[in-house]
Design goal:
Elements lengths: L4 E2 L6 E2 L8 E2 L7 E6 L3 E6 L4 E5 L12 E7 L4 E4 L31 E7 L2 E7 L5 E8 L14 E10 L5 E9 L9 E2 L5 E5 L8 E6 L5 E3 L9 H11 L16 E9 L4 E11 L41 E2 L10 E4 L3 E2 L4 E8 L6 E7 L2 E6 L4 E10 L7 E8 L8 E9 L14 E4 L11 E2 L3 H12 L9 H5 L3 H27 L5 H11 L7 E3 L5 E3 L2 E2 L4 E2 L5 H4 L4 H5 L1 H13 L27 H18 L2 H22 L11 E2 L5 E2 L4 H21 L4 H18 L31 H10 L9 E2 L4 H8 L8 H15 E2 L20 E2 L2 E2 L18 H13 L3 H14 L25 H7 L2 E3 L4 E4 L6 E6 L3 E8 L2 E9 L5 E4 L4
Parallel strand pairs: 42-46
Antiparallel strand pairs: 1-2, 3-9, 4-5, 5-6, 7-8, 7-13, 9-10, 10-11, 11-12, 12-19, 13-18, 14-15, 15-16, 16-19, 17-18, 20-28, 21-27, 21-30, 22-27, 23-26, 23-28, 24-25, 24-27, 28-29, 31-32, 33-34, 35-36, 37-40, 38-39, 41-42, 43-44, 44-45
Helix pairs in contact: 5-17, 8-9, 9-10, 9-11, 9-14, 10-11, 11-12, 11-14, 16-17, 16-18
Length: 981
C-alpha cells in the first residue's frame, strides 16, 4: 500500500500525505485547481504551476492546456527557468499526438526541480524548490469566493501571484516574464487596450470577446509580437530572450502574432521579498448554447450510415451489424431532414426494425407510407439504445409502400436512430441474423445510404424552412457578467478598483473555514468540492439566475438543466450563496412546472417553459418541496415561501395523483429517479422522499394556516408502511410490483432503459421489470431522511431503523479494495486496489439479473451523503471511514483531488460533502426563528458557518456555544442544542 491511514483525535495521518495537507511527489501528478467565477468559466492552476483546463468561452474545454508560462532569469547566475515544477510523466506519452513529440508544448524548457501544492480554497499555493536558484519562490492562485456576495464571486477573473524572496546575502537582479500564445483563437490578434498587458482576441471581431493578461507593476514592458518564422522559430527566439535576460518591446503586429510577453525587471536586497501579480480577465458575451428553444436547422440529414456513437453523444447500442442511421448532431441537435426508401411491395405479414432516439412522433420518427398515406409511426424512447419494433402489416399485403426516417427536431433529444428493416412472416424473426425467408429492405452497412434511398422535401420540412425565414433571431445563453460589464476594459477597470478588497474578503472566508477542529479529511472533502462552483458545470444567465449541468464533458456540458434529483445532494450552494439557490426553486416551480403540477427535472437554457413530454422525477420533485422549506428557513423570508406555496401544493398533489393514486402513503406506481430509470413498486429511497416532502408541506401549512390533515394522514400511513413493510430487520428494501397498477405494462412505458427484447421479456415474467433493486441494500435507501435532516426537518422514520439501515450500508457496501468486485458499468470511478462505497449490494440473496443500471458503481456524492447521515446518527467513525476511502482515490496520484467526477468532471452531486459539516455538528441557522441549532456528535468543536446574511465560526466549548461573525451579520436570539437521536 502506498499509504496507510491512522486516526488519533481526528488528526488523520497518512504515511506520505496528510489529509488537508500539501501535495508533492506522486501526489502532485494530477492536481488542477479551478480559478474563476461562478458561472463565468475557469482555468486551473496545476500542482506544478502550469495552467490547464482553460474553459472560458461558455463551454467546458477540459484538458485544454494553453501555451502560456511564467519564467525567471537571474542575472549573472546563468539561471533561467520556467516558474513551474517538473512536467508530470503522464503528459510526456500517452495523450493524443504525444508520439509526434509535442512540439506544441513548452515541456522542454528548464523547470524547477520540485514543487508542492497546498489548497486553502479559494487559494492554491505552490512552493517551488531548486538548489541552484537563490530565491524562495511561491505562487498563489486565486479568484474571489465570498459567501453571500454572489456577484463578486461570479467575476470572470483570476490571479497568479508570483512571490520571490532573496535568501542570500547578495543583491539579486532578476527578470520576470509571462509569455503566451493566443490560446483563445490562433487566427485572432494580440492587441493593446490593457495597460501593462495584452489582449488575446478572436478572429471574428473584438466584440465577440477577448482574454486579457496584465500585471500591475509600472516597470512592465510588453512585447506584442514574438519572432515570426517557421518550424520552432518563435519559441526558440523567445527562450533565447528569456535565458539571456533580454527585454523585448515589439508593437502589436498587423494580422497574426505568434505570441506576446510581459517583462518585469526587479531587484531584491538580502531578505527582501517582492510579488508580481499576473491578472487574467476574460469577456465572452456570446455562446451557441441553447436548449429547449430550437436552433437554426441544418438540412444535413441525408441517411449516410453512422459507425455508431457520434462525438458528444451518449453511448449508442442495440443496433445490428456495425452501422446504423443516426441523425444526432454534436452541436445541439440542429440536423434535420427526411430520407425515404425506394418503393416496395408488402409481401409479408410483419415489418420489423430497430429504433431509438427522440420520442416526438411529429418530429423524430420512422413512418410506413402506403399508397402515399402515413399508416404507421414509430419513435425512440428518449434513449440511445435501439429497441425492436414490430408492425403487423398483413392488411396491406400486395400494396406499394415506402419507409420514411425523419428528424425535424432541433431541441433536446431531437434525433432519430434506426436500423435493420426486415419483412417477415415471423414476428419473432431475429433481426441480427434474419432467416432465408425474410426480406431485408435495408441494413445501412455500406459507406453511403442504400440504393434508392433519398432525401425528400416533405410538407413539414417546407414549414420548417418558412418558420426559419420568419424567425428574427436565435435564443442563446448569455453569461451574467456580459450584462453587468460593457466589455473587457470595463471589467478590468472594476477588477483593478476592487481586487484588494475582494482578496481580503476571500481571505476572511478562508481563514474562517480552515479555523476548525473538525477532522481534516472532512475539511478536505468539503473544500475540494467547492471548486465545482468555479467549474464550467455551473452557469449564470444574464438576469443572474443560476443554471447548471450535472457535470462537464470534455467539450460540452454533461446532462443539462440543473437536474433536480442530482442537485438534491448538493448542499453547499444553499448555505454559501442562498440567493442563487432560491433561483433554482423559482425556476423549478414557476417555470418548469405546468398547470397539472408536472415538473420537468431539467431546465431549458436560456431558462424558459419546457415541453412536458417525459416522466417527472419522483426524488427530484419531492426533494424540491423539502428544499423550498430549507430555503425558507435559511433566508427567513416567509413571504417568499408564501409566494411559492400554491406551486408547491400543486406539485405535491401531482405526486400523490401520479405515484400514490390510492393514497396509501407510499410510492407504488412506477417513478423515475436519479438512476435514470423507474422503480416499480414501493421502495425505501423514494418513499422516504415522499414522507420528507409531506413533512415539509405540513410545516409550511401550519405557518400559513392552510389545511393539512389530508397530508398528515398520508404521512402517518407512509411511516407505518415504511417501518412495517419495507424494513427487513436490517435495512429498507423495495417491493417490486408491476401488476395491478394504473400504469401500463412495463414493455409499453416510456423509459431511458430501452425496450424489451425476447430475453428481457423472459426476465420480466421471472423477476419483474428491468432495473430494480428489490431485496438489495441500497446506499441511497433512506436518502429522503437525510434530505429532511439537512433541510432542518425532523426525520419521521424510526430512528433505530434509519440508523440500522446506514450501519448496514457501511457493513455491506463499503469495500476496502475492489480487486474481486465486478463492475460491467462505469469502472473508473473506483477500481482494482481502490476502496469505495458501492451503490447497492445483495447480502441476503435476491440479486437481480438486470439491476438498476449503475448498481455496481461508486459515486462520491452518495459516499458523502451516507457518511453525513451516519454522523447525524452518532456513527462518526463509520462516516469518516467512508470519507477517507473516497479522498484516498482523489489523492492526486491518479485523479485530480479537485475534480470528483461521475457522469462528467466536477460533478454536482459531490457537493453532498458540505453535509458532513452538518452531520458532525448539527449546525443549522434558522433565520425565521433567529435560532442557531447545534447537535454535536464530536463533543466540543470549532467550525465554519454560513448563512443568508453573513459567515463566521461557531465554537462549542464545555458545552457553551460562541458565535464569531467575520463578514456580514448573523442575528441569533437563542441557541438550541438538540438531544442526540
Amino acid at each position: 500500500m502506498k499509504k496507510c491511514a491512522e486516526n488519533n483525535d481526528f488528526q488523520t495521518k497518512q504515511t506520505e500525505r496528510f489529509y488537508n495537507g500539501e501535495y508533492r511527489d506522486e501526489f502532485l501528478n494530477r492536481v488542477a485547481f479551478p480559478i474563476g467565477g461562478i458561472g463565468a468559466g475557469m482555468f486551473c492552476l496545476e500542482g506544478t504551476g502550469a495552467i490547464s483546463h482553460l474553459s472560458v468561452q461558455n463551454h467546458p474545454d477540459i484538458f485544454n492546456e494553453p501555451y502560456a508560462f511564467a519564467a525567471i532569469h537571474i542575472k549573472g547566475k546563468n539561471i533561467a527557468k520556467v516558474l513551474e515544477a517538473q512536467v508530470p510523466s503522464w503528459k510526456l506519452f500517452g495523450s493524443p499526438d504525444s508520439g509526434l513529440g509535442r512540439g506544441d508544448k513548452s515541456y522542454g524548457l528548464p523547470r524547477f526541480e520540485k514543487g508542492s501544492f497546498m489548497a486553502r480554497f479559494p487559494f492554491g499555493i505552490i512552493n517551488l524548490e531548486d538548489e541552484r536558484v537563490p530565491l524562495k519562490v511561491k505562487i498563489t492562485g486565486w479568484s474571489p469566493f465570498i459567501p453571500t456576495d454572489e456577484d463578486n464571486s461570479s467575476l470572470p477573473a483570476g490571479v497568479l501571484e508570483y512571490s520571490f524572496r532573496n535568501n542570500t546575502k547578495e543583491t539579486i537582479d532578476a527578470l520576470f516574464s509571462y509569455n503566451s500564445r493566443n490560446f483563445i483563437d490562433n487566427g485572432g490578434q494580440i492587441t493593446k487596450g490593457i495597460e501593462r498587458g495584452f489582449k488575446l482576441t478572436k478572429s471574428t471581431k473584438e466584440e465577440d470577446g477577448a482574454f486579457g493578461i496584465y500585471v500591475s507593476n509600472n516597470e512592465a514592458v510588453v512585447d506584442y509580437c514574438w519572432f515570426r518564422g517557421g518550424w520552432f522559430d518563435s519559441q526558440t527566439i523567445l527562450w533565447e530572450n528569456i535565458r539571456n535576460g533580454r527585454i523585448v518591446s515589439n508593437p502589436p503586429a498587423e494580422g497574426f502574432s505568434p505570441g506576446a510577453s510581459i517583462y518585469v525587471p526587479f531587484t531584491l536586497a538580502p531578505g527582501e521579498e517582492k510579488t508580481i501579480a499576473v491578472n487574467f480577465c476574460w469577456y465572452f458575451p456570446k455562446s451557441n448554447l441553447s436548449i429547449g428553444h430550437g436552433s437554426t436547422p441544418r438540412y444535413e440529414f441525408i441517411g449516410k450510415p453512422s459507425k455508431g456513437t457520434a462525438p458528444h453523444q451518449q453511448h449508442v447500442s442495440g443496433y445490428a451489424g456495425k452501422r446504423l442511421v443516426n441523425s444526432f448532431d454534436p452541436y445541439g441537435d440542429r440536423i434535420v431532414g427526411v430520407i425515404q426508401s425506394p418503393e416496395f411491395t408488402i409481401t409479408k405479414k410483419y415489418l420489423k426494425f430497430l429504433v431509438g432516439g427522440g420520442n416526438k412522433k411529429e418530429k423524430s420518427f420512422v413512418r410506413l407510407i402506403v399508397d402515399g398515406d402515413v399508416e404507421m409511426v414509430a419513435t425512440g424512447n428518449q434513449t440511445e439504445t435501439l429497441s425492436e419494433k414490430v408492425w403487423e402489416v398483413k392488411q396491406y399485403l400486395g400494396k406499394r409502400a415506402r419507409i420514411q426516417i425523419g428528424d425535424l427536431d432541433t431541441e433536446g433529444w431531437g434525433h432519430i436512430l434506426a436500423d435493420q428493416f426486415v419483412m417477415t412472416d415471423d414476428p419473432h424473426e431475429p433481426l441480427s441474423n434474419p432467416s432465408s425467408t425474410a426480406i431485408l429492405i435495408a441494413d445501412f452497412e455500406g459507406d453511403e445510404a442504400p440504393d434508392g434511398w433519398e432525401n425528400v422535401e416533405t410538407e413539414e420540412l417546407k414549414q420548417l424552412r418558412e418558420e426559419q425565414a420568419n424567425r428574427e433571431q436565435e435564443v442563446f445563453y448569455k453569461p451574467w457578467y456580459a450584462e453587468r460589464f460593457k466589455n473587457l476594459e470595463d471589467l478590468v477597470s472594476y477588477w483593478e478598483s476592487r481586487k484588494a478588497q475582494l482578496r481580503h474578503n476571500s481571505e476572511l472566508f478562508t481563514n474562517s473555514f480552515y479555523d476548525t477542529t473538525l477532522p481534516p479529511e472532512v475539511t478536505e472533502a468539503i473544500a475540494a468540492n467547492l471548486t465545482i462552483l468555479k467549474s464550467p458545470t455551473v452557469l449564470r444567465q444574464s438576469d443572474g439566475r443560476f443554471w447548471a449541468w450535472e457535470g462537464c464533458g470534455d467539450k460540452v456540458g454533461s446532462c443539462h438543466g440543473s437536474c433536480t434529483h442530482v442537485w438534491n445532494y448538493a448542499q453547499a450552494l444553499p448555505h454559501l450563496f442562498p440567493n442563487l439557490e432560491r433561483t433554482l426553486r423559482e425556476t423549478e416551480f414557476k417555470v418548469d412546472q405546468n398547470e397539472d403540477g408536472h415538473q420537468n427535472f431539467r431546465s431549458n437554457i436560456p431558462i424558459a417553459p419546457p415541453e412536458h413530454n417525459f416522466h417527472a422525477a419522483a426524488d427530484g420533485q419531492l426533494g424540491g418541496i423539502m428544499k423550498v422549506y430549507r430555503e425558507w428557513r435559511i433566508s427567513g423570508d416567509t413571504e417568499w415561501m408564501k409566494s411559492l406555496f400554491p406551486y408547491v401544493k400543486k406539485s405535491l398533489d401531482y405526486c400523490i395523483r401520479t405515484w400514490d393514486p390510492k393514497k396509501k402513503g407510499y410510492l407504488e406506481e412506477p417513478h423515475h429517479n436519479t438512476y435514470d430509470i423507474e422503480f416499480w413498486g414501493p421502495d425505501g429511497m423514494c418513499t422516504s422522499f415522499y414522507l420528507g416532502a409531506l413533512t415539509a408541506f405540513v410545516e409550511m401549512c401550519k405557518t400559513l394556516k392552510e389545511p393539512y390533515k389530508e397530508y398528515e394522514s398520508l404521512l402517518k400511513k407512509g411511516k407505518k408502511y415504511m417501518e412495517n413493510d419495507l424494513f427487513d430487520g436490517e435495512y429498507f428494501i423495495q417491493k417490486i410490483q408491476w401488476e395491478g397498477l394504473e400504469a401500463p405494462n412495463p414493455v409499453d412505458v416510456q423509459s431511458f432503459g430501452g425496450g424489451y427484447s425476447d430475453e428481457a421479456l423472459a426476465l420480466l415474467k421471472k423477476e419483474g421489470p428491468k432495473y430494480q433493486y428489490g431485496k438489495g441494500c441500497l446506499s441511497d435507501g433512506i436518502l429522503g431522511m437525510w434530505m429532511a435532516s439537512v433541510c432542518g426537518l425532523p426525520e419521521v422514520i424510526d430512528n433505530n431503523m434509519v440508523k440500522s439501515h446506514l450501519v448496514s450500508v457501511h457493513k455491506y457496501n463499503l469495500k476496502t479494495r475492489l480487486l474481486d468486485h465486478y463492475n460491467p458499468q462505469r469502472p473508473t470511478y473506483a477500481c482494482g486496489n481502490e476502496g469505495g462505497l458501492l451503490l447497492c449490494s445483495w447480502p441476503k440473496g435476491g440479486a437481480l439479473s438486470l439491476p438498476f443500471v449503475y448498481s455496481n458503481e461508486v459515486w462520491t456524492g452518495i459516499e458523502y451523503q451516507v457518511a453525513s447521515h451516519l454522523m447525524f446518527k452518532g456513527e462518526v467513525e463509520k462516516g469518516l471511514e467512508i470519507v477517507r476511502r473516497c479522498r484516498d482515490r482523489y489523492d492526486g496520484s491518479v485523479r485530480n483531488p479537485f475534480n470528483e467526477y461521475e457522469c462528467g468532471h466536477w460533478y454536482a452531486r459531490a457537493m453532498a460533502s458540505y453535509g458532513l459539516l452538518q452531520g458532525l455538528t448539527g449546525l443549522f441557522y434558522d433565520a425565521v426563528d433567529k435560532t442557531l441549532h447545534i447537535d454535536s456528535r464530536v463533543g466540543d468543536f470549532k467550525c465554519f458557518i454560513s448563512t443568508q446574511s453573513g459567515f463566521g465560526t461557531v465554537e462549542l466549548k464545555a458545552g457553551k456555544p460562541t458565535l464569531k461573525v467575520v463578514y456580514g451579520k448573523i442575528e441569533v436570539e437563542k441557541f438550541k442544542s438538540a438531544m442526540h437521536r
